[in-house]
Design goal:
297 residues; alpha+beta; Glutamine Phosphoribosylpyrophosphate, subunit 1, domain 1; seven-stranded mixed beta sheet; 13 strands
């Protein structure tokens, strides 16, 4: 195997969106063909997913519960141990590319207004990621919280209780997918990279941080492979999912078996998906439908 590229559109994302994942994987392959490494290819793939408004990342990210804020998270890790992430960043087109620039600093993670200010300093222009689809989705979600909706988001709504008029609080055991997008890549020189990017979960308070920008939870890469996870961020962080799966691969477990063991860590009600690439194999798997693509050569 000279190279392998895996992309996903998030746990529980419609499989009909897999064309977007294929296009992202093709962008990664084109980057490799031009001499780029695994890191550059994974960034190209994830930026393509962020630019597809069907996915909850970059343009198309969902609104927070306040109905106005869009706070995005992204991270990238390469097999030489470098890591960069942004969390709760606002008004940028491609959070994952900002995360890659964080890798050039002494820091691992930049948050909130500081992350947005950093993006401006290194040349990322102001960008409004909101879409009509995101606003309509938010309106349906709030309607379901009020008990007046069409039931599309009823499974998530019971996890919240009503506060003052127009306000909701009380995070409980939510079980809906977060639509985190991501990629893992192995290049012909045996280097690995993993990325993640998300607009957050459907019912999200401002300032929430999930698995996507958390090293070892949403992504992990090392000399033995790369892992990207998607699903309920709080549950993924609790299980340190990406690093756990990576460690099993490093111990000699085949990627498919390591991914299956990772899925088995979660109860059936929790949406979760995993992309894993090792030195001799790769797999994309999920306990729900999930848009995905795989290229190898």
């Amino acid at each position: 195997m000279r190279y392998a590229i895996l992309t996903h559109g998030g746990a529980a994302s419609p499989e009909s969106f897999s064309d977007g994942c294929v296009a992202a994987a093709e962008a990664a392959r084109a980057t490799l063909d031009r001499g780029g490494d695994a890191l550059a290819a994974a960034l190209a793939a994830t930026a393509a997913l962020e630019d597809d408004p069907r996915f909850n990342a970059g343009t198309g990210s969902i609104l927070r519960l306040d109905g106005t804020a869009i706070e995005m998270d992204a991270s990238v890790m390469s097999s030489d141990g470098r890591f960069g992430a942004v969390t709760c960043i606002e008004r940028v087109k491609n959070p994952v590319l900002v995360a890659a620039r964080v890798m050039e600093t002494p820091h691992l993670v930049l948050a909130g207004a500081g992350a947005t200010a950093f993006a401006r300093r290194v040349g990322f222009e102001d960008h409004d990621p909101s879409t009509l689809r995101a606003r309509e989705r938010h309106a349906r979600a709030i309607a379901d919280l009020e008990g007046l909706g069409d039931g599309r988001h009823a499974r998530e709504a019971p996890g919240w209780r009503r506060g003052p008029p127009g306000h909701y609080f009380g995070f409980a055991d939510l079980c809906a997918g977060a639509d985190t997008v991501g990629a893992v890549v192995r290049d012909a020189q045996g280097r690995f990279a993993a990325t993640a990017s998300t607009g957050g979960t459907l019912f999200t308070l401002r300032g929430r941080v999930g698995d996507a920008p958390t090293m070892g939870a949403g992504v992990y890469a090392g000399p033995h492979g790369a892992v990207a996870a998607t699903g309920i961020g709080e549950e993924i962080v609790r299980r340190f999912l990406a690093k756990s799966v990576y460690d099993w691969v490093a111990e000699g477990l085949a990627p498919a078996r390591a991914a299956s063991r990772g899925l088995a860590m979660f109860p059936d009600v929790v949406d979760v998906g995993i992309c894993v690439i090792g030195r001799t194999g790769h797999v994309v798997t999920s306990n729900r439908s999930m848009a995905r693509a795989a290229l190898a050569g």
